[in-house]
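Subject — a protein and its fold
Fields — amino acid sequence, structure tokens
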Amino acid sequence: MRARKLPVAALALLLAVACSAKVPAPADLNNSLFPRVRGESLTKQEVIIPDHYRGSPTLLLIGYTQKAQFDIDRWILGALQAGVPATIVELPTIAGMMPEMVQGFINNGMRSGIPTEDWGSVVTVYEDAGKIIAALGNERPQSAYVVLIDGDGRIVWSSSRGYSASQVLDLKRAGESIAKGLAVALPSHLSTAASPR
């Protein structure tokens, strides 16, 4: 029995290390297209991002680890309180072979902690997680990667610096500009996921 446990534990450790490679964020994400990825909502509906949200501003709150949930929750509350004019979607993005093997277990765990009425706004990404990581980076896995896309799937605002009230106000202005059909021109230190904290 002990001989079986050791190889499984070693394999799990190897997979965890292999899946934790740090990918730097691009210097500026503005005006780039969000990668086309396939996910599944907690209502078990397939969702293609950004296609599913075409035509309206969408706020994507991407979390690579469980530790990012606290930051995601703050962003959700801040965006709702500020009245950010965008559809809010939480994207748990979990890379690696091991999560794909237990995605049902992970999704059921999330369902147990999220009210049923919010299940449609939580879309888990497993198989295409690498596309999101390659596009946005993953150097700050404890923080939410916050991305505002326009109706065409273009990134107009992003941050991975952690929640702050001033960023929510900038985010609101960007959302209002999209809603009005105006071009968004924010200073790069406010609009890039690579900004230092």
Q: What stands out?
A: Residues 31 and 155 are 5 Å apart (CA to CA).
